């Protein structure tokens, strides 16, 4: 394990643009950052943004690997922390259910270190019983959460669902890494 390597998962929500700032915070603080993006995340922010900020190739697929060893397995052996920001309702459901159908969820299913999720979604989605159940399942497995916060979300609705500020996520991630 590399105590300075953070796996940053980015999922397909409008808050994905905030993940760029989080990536930059990690990198400027001396961490190596390996970004794993879902296909839907790349609809909001391009992999080039994260490649520039992290100075590393971005993992977007299970199928484009440069080595004989699957990237998610190699990264799981090296990373000190998985932070997913934003963590959409879709990601929470997949992670809680053990679904591994893309690079990020497959890595998450392989990784056995500390996990920090920064949920971001419409307040009605956050309040939905299925989402609440998934959060309980994940918390019961020792997954940590940053937010979500209360306030106005991108669609204009107000309530709990807005992704925590990148600085807040960074602070919590740093605290988790000190415990390791």
UniProtKB/TrEMBL annotation:
Source superkingdom: Bacteria
Record Pfam families: Flavoprotein (PF02441)
All copies of domain Flavoprotein, residue ranges: 6-170
GO cellular component, one term: phosphopantothenoylcysteine decarboxylase complex
GO molecular function: FMN binding; phosphopantothenoylcysteine decarboxylase activity
Gene Ontology biological-process annotations: coenzyme A biosynthetic process
InterPro entries in the cross-refs: Flavin_trans-like, Flavoprotein
PANTHER family referenced in this protein's UniProt entry, alphabetically: HOMO-OLIGOMERIC FLAVIN CONTAINING CYS DECARBOXYLASE FAMILY (PTHR14359), PHOSPHOPANTOTHENOYLCYSTEINE DECARBOXYLASE (PTHR14359:SF6)
Name the UniProt record assigns to this protein: Phosphopantothenoylcysteine decarboxylase
């Amino acid at each position: 394990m590399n105590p300075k390597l953070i796996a940053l998962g980015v999922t397909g929500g409008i808050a994905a643009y905030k993940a760029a700032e989080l990536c930059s915070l990690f990198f400027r603080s001396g961490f190596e950052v390996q970004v794993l993006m879902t296909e839907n995340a790349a609809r909001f922010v391009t992999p080039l943004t994260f490649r520039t900020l992290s100075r590393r190739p971005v993992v977007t697929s299970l199928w484009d690997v440069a080595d004989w060893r699957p990237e998610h397995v190699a990264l799981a052996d090296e990373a000190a922390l998985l932070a997913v920001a934003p963590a959409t309702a879709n990601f929470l459901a997949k992670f809680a259910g053990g679904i591994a159908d893309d690079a990020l969820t497959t890595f998450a299913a392989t990784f056995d270190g500390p996990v920090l999720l920064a949920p971001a979604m419409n307040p009605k989605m956050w309040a939905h019983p299925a989402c609440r159940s998934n959060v309980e399942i994940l918390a019961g497995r020792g997954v940590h959460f940053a937010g979500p916060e209360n306030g106005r979300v991108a669609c204009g609705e107000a309530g709990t669902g807005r992704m925590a500020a990148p600085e807040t996520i960074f602070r919590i991630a740093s605290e988790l890494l000190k415990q390791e």
